[in-house]
């Protein structure tokens, strides 16, 4: 099997929403890294040296290649990333090798076999 890594940077209020959406689209799990920081086109506003912005999380999804595009689009819709600038971003990269995914591979194979019937 070939895999893609989907990386989503999202406002923390939407983390559970996008993880649930990704699972409904076929993702078998996620890793969430909390309180990441980034800047886009517009600089963050500060007050007395403290950044006035909500926290962001990074959600990582290692998914089967054929499911990746649909999962990526589902995350975008669920997080409403196109609604306004700074809402979130999601992208995917190819994975050359992955070890430790035996349980996910079994689940994916069973799901693919069920879809073929």
From TrEMBL:
PROSITE patterns in UniProt: PII_GLNB_DOM (PS51343)
SUPFAM superfamilies attached to this UniProt entry: GlnB-like
Database matches in SMART domains: P-II
Name of the featured protein: Nitrogen regulatory protein P-II
Protein's organism: Aliiroseovarius zhejiangensis
């Amino acid at each position: 099997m070939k895999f893609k890594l989907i990386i989503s940077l999202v406002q923390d209020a939407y983390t559970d929403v996008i993880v649930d959406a990704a699972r409904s689209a076929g993702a078998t799990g996620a890793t969430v890294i909390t309180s990441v920081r980034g800047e886009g086109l517009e600089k963050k506003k500060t007050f007395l040296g403290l950044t006035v912005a909500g926290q962001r999380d990074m959600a990582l999804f290692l998914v089967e290649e054929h499911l990746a595009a649909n999962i990526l689009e589902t995350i975008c819709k669920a997080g409403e990333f196109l609604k306004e600038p700074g809402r979130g971003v999601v992208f995917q990269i190819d994975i050359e090798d992955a070890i430790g995914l035996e349980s996910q591979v079994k689940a994916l194979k069973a799901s693919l076999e069920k879809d073929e019937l």
